[in-house]
Amino acid sequence: MRIEDLATRPDLRRPALELGVVGGEFLAHDVIGDLAASARLAARWPEFFLVLLENAVPVARAAAIPVAYPTDERTELPDHGWDGALLWAAQDVMDHREPTTLVALEVHVAERARGQGVAALALTELKNRARHAGLSRLVVPVRPTGKADHAAESIVDYAARRDKLGRPVDPWLRNHERLGARPVKIAPFAMTVIGTLDQWEEWTGVRLGDGLTSVPGGIAPVLGSVAQNLGVYVEPNVWLEHPL
């Protein structure tokens, strides 16, 4: 397995994106997520956008951003999770503030390469990059992949689930824990997507009614209002810290 980054191989950005997306199409409509556009990350922090190759073919990608944390104003990781980390990074660039922590935004492995330890390789390399950059922490707003089957369950209850061996039931949380990560806190509103009922039907194939509705690719239900012609999706994450 070979690991490249966009600083030395900018040509890999498009093939890396073609590996697919995490979650449902509707997640692309989180307005804060526009800050994580691959072209922006490649232009600003290409050394933290990794592409993993097997026989010269991309099989995984990982993207991370540096932020200043902790600071006098930032005493704990943001409740807004993934969105919050992106806002911090943008603020730090505008304020010319030196980063101290690396936030892993995404580790995505092609389906054909899963179960082979590829995600662990990517996370390990992000740790190495953080150390090399003089950063002191690696934190991850983890999207528990198995929660899609338990969308109505609270993130607190789901994250606390353990198997007979005492490991997290969720496979992605378990993978991080295996690498030494420890849970820090719940991010109850890590991503937010708002759209009209027609937009939600276009994104998911589901017509929302009043109240909560589970949609394909969601790890939490969408709250709909027919009177307001509105659907609101609020996705939770679990903040984990990897020791450096």
Q: TL;DR of this structure?
A:
The protein is α+β, with helices and mostly antiparallel strands.
Keywords:
single chain; acyltransferase; 9 strands; 244 residues; Acyl_CoA_acyltransferase
- The count of DSSP E runs of length 2 or more, i.e. the number of strands, is 9
Which range best describes the helical content: under 10%, 10-25%, 25-40%, 40-55%, 55-70% or over 70%? 25-40%
Shape: globular
SSE run: EHHEEHEHEHHEHEEE
CATH class: Alpha Beta
CATH topology: Aminopeptidase
Specify the CATH homologous superfamily: Gcn5-related N-acetyltransferase (GNAT)
For this structure, the quaternary state is single chain
Number of helices: 7
Question: What structural class results from the helix and strand content?
Answer: alpha+beta
Strand % is: 25-35%
InterPro entries: Acyl_CoA_acyltransferase, GNAT_dom
GO molecular function, one term: acyltransferase activity
EC number: 2.3.1.-
Keywords: Acyltransferase, Transferase
